[in-house]
Write a structure and sequence with these properties.
Elements: H1 3-12, H2 19-41, E1 82-87, E2 90-95, E3 102-103, E4 108-109, H3 115-128, H4 135-145, H5 150-161, E5 174-183, E6 187-196, E7 203-214, E8 217-220, E9 232-235, E10 242-243
Antiparallel strand pairs: 1-2, 3-4, 5-6, 5-10, 6-7, 7-8, 7-9
Helix pairs in contact: 4-5
Length: about 250
Amino acid sequence: MPRSSALQDFADRPPWTRPGFVASAALMLLVVIAGVLIAVLAPGGDGNDVGDGRSPASPAPAESDPEQSLPTAMPTTAPAGVQWELVGPLAVPASATAGPKQITGTSASGFAHTPEGALIAAAQISTRASYSLGRDYWEPTIESQFVPGPDRDRMLAELRASDTSPADLGSQSQIAGFSYQSYTPDTAVIGLVLRAPSAGTPRYHVLSLTLLWQNGDWRMQAPPGGAWISVNRVTSDLTGVVEWGPQ
């Protein structure tokens, strides 16, 4: 065949049948295969690790903190929907939303994990722990709803050694208000205001009560030395106090 005919025949052939094209394609195929082998055999790569669809560099999603969604705003007005019920001669608050959820003859528990729940727990637990209601109330309340510790044990010991028969209605201090001192989902410090029985100028006792969220409920921390007087302040001034009590 003449040289010109050979050249013409080569030029007329499809490009993928030309020797140069075939060689280039073979080289590219080898490069691709080598790249796949490197990716599969590299440390940490197994060829099947598709995970959950995120790239290896993608950060894991942050876990939500349940306490971040809990309310923490301290009430500046009296809680709505509260009913006052008598426990012996003393009135205590109860709410369908804030608790207590469980009430027995002498105890109340199951308070909401909210500032309002802590407030009602403070009123219920401190009232039921009062020596004036008698041993049937204060003993199970202090044993089961106070944070265990030396102060709680001393309070129990002193009450058991004293005369704690129920007191008269006219000698009892009734809840008259509150003032929040601090609040977190773990700890609430509340000033519970009690109106002292008096024929003259009204006097008030402000008990600084600390409650801790433990085992799914609010529990009272015993006062230092197991004596309420250590957290009691007497005043006639209700500045900064939210008035709250039975009507």
